[in-house]
Amino acid sequence: MHLPPPSGTEYSFMTPFLRKVLSMNWLLIGSMLALAVFGVIAIDSCTYMQPSPAYLLMWRKQTVWIGISTVAFIGLSLLDYRWIRRGALPMYVAGIVFLILTLLIGVKKDGARCWLHLGPIQFQPAQFAVIAGVLMLALFLSQFRAIHPMLKLLAAGVIVAAPALLILIQPDFGEFAVWIPILFAMLFMARMPLRYLIAVAIIGTGSLPVMYFFKLKPYQRERIVAFADPEINPQGAAWAVNQTLIAVGSGRWSGKGFKAPDTRVEQGYVPRTTVPNDYIFAAIGEQWGFVGGSILIACFGLLLGTCFYIMSRARDLLGLLLCVGITTLIFTHVFQNIGMTIGIMPVTGVPLPLISYSGSFVLMIMFGLGLINSVWVHRVRD
Questions:
Q1: Are 310 and 375 in contact (CB under 8 A)?
Q2: Cα angle vertex 34, ends 29, 39, to 5°?
Q3: Do 169 and 175 meet the contact criterion of CB atoms below 8 Å apart?
Q4: Are 251 and 287 in contact (CB under 8 A)?
Q5: Coil, strand or helix: which one is 305?
Q6: Which of 32, 38, 271, 292 is most solvent-facing, going by the fewest CB within 10 Å?
Q7: Helix or strand or coil: residue 11?
Q8: 322-332 pLDDT, tens per residue?
Q9: Are 174 and 350 in contact (CB under 8 A)?
Q10: What is the spatial order of strands in the sheet that 107-109 belongs to?
Q11: pLDDT level of residue 110 (50, 70, 90 thresholds)
Q12: What is the per-residue DSSP string for 207-263?
């Protein structure tokens, strides 16, 4: 005698729900959480010697943000990514509004007005605006495939220019520069003719001198000069660059050890106020050495490689472009942050994803990775 299958709303709901949970990309989740946990350890290792209680609590605050971000990641993973067809524009407009509010009432730090207070929460709207811009650009390029390439290029330029120029006015050159590879990568994957991309690259390269002399603040120009010649002002703009190089080099093969005493970071040669954020890789290199730094980079490689694989399995152009934009965003931050620490990129103050102390940035990165995981979960067509 065969019993009839269970009936009712609970059975019909739980089956697809459990199917989505079991079909999530666990390699993506594992590499993401491994980086986030190591980030907490790294923050603790470079702040334990700080006299201020605010610094001593950083790793705990980061842990709380990771918990909140993980919940958001899971929720976005289970939600069909195609919701951005309705949600991208409101998020994009909100990002523009936040950037304008930052210019008007934002908190000014180190010569830049990049932070915004909303009650007890302080965050950088530029990071939210970049994610929202990626969503809006992916939606546009996937919905208007048939229009002339020139019109598509101009419209994409307008979508990017609005938040990018507001970010540059702050000025936050690091987050502004992140837009460049994102735009090119997404246009390329949207099959924009190569001649248009080459023309844009030539025009952009020609505008660099204008931006250098008329858009950058004096301290930003000094950073670029210090990158080109670290010996030109070793006690000024080149100080941080030289000290991070010494700190990473002093770690040698296996490092000085977790919370080791008498490190360059502990002694304050690397600016203590920026070590948990901009220069956290210097602390990692000094305490964990070449081995620790290489493992960290390999873990990022695993995360990005998984994102590329999910990209190749996307069900539609919208999912593909989402993966391209978010993966390029993460890669650019990783390359820029580690690059400025080891002297192959100028200092721009870009945080290291999932590692640097920045609660709102952790939330934005896990938000993006949740969308990528959603592309994987919903890769089978209805």
A1: yes
A2: 130
A3: no
A4: yes
A5: helix
A6: 271
A7: helix
A8: 999 999 999 99
A9: yes
A10: 107-109, 112-118, 121-123
A11: low
A12: THHHHHHHTS-HHHHHHHHHHH-TTSSTTTTTHHHHHHHHHHHHTTTT-S-TT-SS-
Using pLDDT thresholds of 50, 70 and 90, give the confidence band for residue 233.
low
373 and 76 Cβ atoms separated by less than 8 Å: yes
Burial 262-293 (b: 16+ CB within 10 A, else e): ebbbbeebbebebbbbbbbbbbbbbbbbeebb
* 353 compared with 259, residue with greater pLDDT: 353
pTM: 0.90
Q: Write out the DSSP string of 108-149.
A: EETTEEEEEEETTEEE-HHHHHHHHHHHHHHHHHHH--SS-H
CB 327 within 8 A of CB 311: yes
Is residue 95 within 8 A of residue 132, CB to CB? The reply is yes
Judge residue 237's burial from the number of C-beta atoms within 10 Å of its C-beta, 0-12 exposed, 13-18 middle, 19 or more buried. buried
Looking at residue 82, what DSSP letter applies? G
What's the rounded Cα separation, in Å, for the pair 37 and 299? 12
| Whole-angstrom distance, CA of residue 35 vs CA of residue 24 | 18
